[in-house]
Amino acid sequence: MGEFHVIDHPLIQHKLSIMRDHRTGPKDFRQLLEEITILMGYEITRDFPLEDYEVITPMAKMTAKRIAGRKVAIVPILRAGLGMVDGLLNLIPVAKVGHIGLYRDPVTHEPKTYYCKLPSDIERRSVIVCDPMLATGGSSSDAITKLKEKGVTDIRLLCLVSAPEGVKKVQTDHPDVDIFTAALDEKLDERCYIIPGLGDAGDRLFGTK
């Protein structure tokens, strides 16, 4: 079973509280999401393997460490996942970025795919899927399924706020995928929005509502 991690660092919780406030505008919302993603990025990459290599400092020769193993791909779920990409690229600037476009049917709440563009070597990479709001879990689960269909075997899901229903959905459909989130909220409402949540992350990021 993939592990479920709530990253409750004080800085993350402080910044998330400002994001939840309905008075926070798009500019600050975007900046805070990028900052939180950087902080969460330290934890989501904590188990990346290392290897020894030789470095000559101004003082002496030494055996240093560098990340070994698979290269990384960042795959945001459009639109809101875009707000997490720059934070991760600050940490892993050589990562490639793919995009999966999904929307939620307003009646059935099921995810529909309208765009999918991934690096050609995606199956050889460790993939971080970015979706700020893990609500029903349908979009995240569907995106993970598409990645597995492309041969990807190392997938981590990075979220900002999660609902128990979404966590259960992803863990049921993809028990091998670790989930990282900044908060586990109470529930979904009748419209499948997270409560207390922070509203529609895409609208708040881009000022479309």
State Rg. 18 Å
The end-to-end distance, rounded to whole angstroms, is: 38 Å
The strand count comes to 15
Sheet with most strands? 8 strands, mixed
Average of pLDDT: 94
Uncertain residue ranges: none
Measured by DSSP, the beta-strand proportion falls in 25-35%
User: Based on helices, strands and strand pairing, what is the structural class?
Assistant: alpha/beta
Q: Specify the helix fraction band.
A: 25-40%
Shape: globular
Number of helices: 6
Characterise this structure.
With 209 residues, the protein is of the alpha/beta class. It has six helices and 15 strands. The strands form four sheets. Strands 1, 4, 5, 6, 7, 8, 10 and 12 form an eight-stranded mixed β-sheet that branches. The chain has a three-stranded parallel β-sheet with strand order 9-11-13. Helix 3 (85-91) links the parallel strand 4 (71-78) and strand 5. Helix 1 (10-20) runs antiparallel to helix 2 and helix 2 (26-44) crosses helix 3 (85-91). The longest helix is centred in the first third of the chain and has 19 residues, at 26-44. The radius of gyration is 18 Å and the shape is globular. The model has no long low-confidence stretch (mean pLDDT 94).
